[in-house]
Amino acid sequence: MENTYTLITGASSGIGRAFALEYGKRGQNLIITARSGDKLQELKREIEKDNQVSIECIIMDLAAEGSAKLLYEEIRKRKLHVDVLINNAGFATKGLFHKTDYKRQHEEMLLNIVSLTELTYLLLEDMCQKRHGTVINIASAASFNPLPYSAVYAATKAYVLSLTQALSFEYQDYGVKLLAVCPGATDTHFFDGFKTAASRLRMPEDVVRTTEKALKKGKSICTDGTFCKAQMLLSRIASRKSALGIMGKTGRKTWG
Ligand SMILES: NC(=O)c1ccc[n+]([C@@H]2O[C@H](COP(=O)([O-])OP(=O)(O)OC[C@H]3O[C@@H](n4cnc5c(N)ncnc54)[C@H](OP(=O)(O)O)[C@@H]3O)[C@@H](O)[C@H]2O)c1
């Protein structure tokens, strides 16, 4: 369909940008959104140069109250139809909980949880009516275990994983697929300002490839890289207490 678009949040860098480049290459029209308008315009030019696609840029701070609704209304105003939603925008705070700026942690919850949930909610209506659509929610290796010294971040990503898997069951008879993608440590701006506990980093393109394989197999969850698989395994084989001890030591050493 000519007016059908893939909406990618946080498309200005990292994993979101890699999704935009790959989907653009495949001839998908895109709505790319983030706060950095200049980076979105540059990405639009780069994709349109080599591909016959339409790229719409929408500048939006999705950590602001009510912003998901504003984004949805802007998409409707432009008469665009979204058949693939990639809820990718997100960030992490690190440090001892009560010493970490609360405003930042509140924004983290608004971006990672509230906007992701509201966009999914608003766009599902249309997808269900057409009995066609895909929602890809970017969770994390941190979705599987509590993570001391990044407690709010891991809790937001546990939410993303739980919500997405539950909805994938609810909507299986509506023609809509939902997939939670759990990247491990990946080489993006995500780690600007703090260290990673992982010894090797994945590339954003690896996450995109893993996502595509999982979609083809009809999965509701996928992990990218051995670091992430190890986190998932830990949550399965260790008791909650042991897993917390292991994660706590790592968290304290890295960000405490
Ligand atoms: N990199 C990793 O190791 C890793 C591991 C697991 C999960 N993840 C998840 O992967 C997703 C993408 O992160 P990344 O690694 O690609 O990091 P990144 O390079 O920092 O990209 C984050 C993207 O989110 C956007 N964003 C940040 N705050 C925003 C806001 N308030 N409103 C709208 N957009 C905002 C940024 O754009 P602007 O700054 O232009 O707004 C940027 O496009 C996140 O959900 C992250 O939690 C990453």
Automatic annotation (TrEMBL):
UniProt protein name: Short-chain dehydrogenase
InterPro entries the UniProt entry points to: NAD(P)-bd_dom_sf, Sc_DH/Rdtase_CS, SDR_fam
One family name in Pfam for this protein: adh_short
Cellular component terms (Gene Ontology): membrane
The entry's keywords: Oxidoreductase
Family per similarity comment: Belongs to the short-chain dehydrogenases/reductases (SDR) family.
Protein's UniProt keywords contain Oxidoreductase: yes
GO terms, molecular function: oxidoreductase activity
Source domain of life: Bacteria
Originating species: Eisenbergiella tayi
Entry-linked Gene3D superfamilies: NAD(P)-binding Rossmann-like Domain (3.40.50.720)
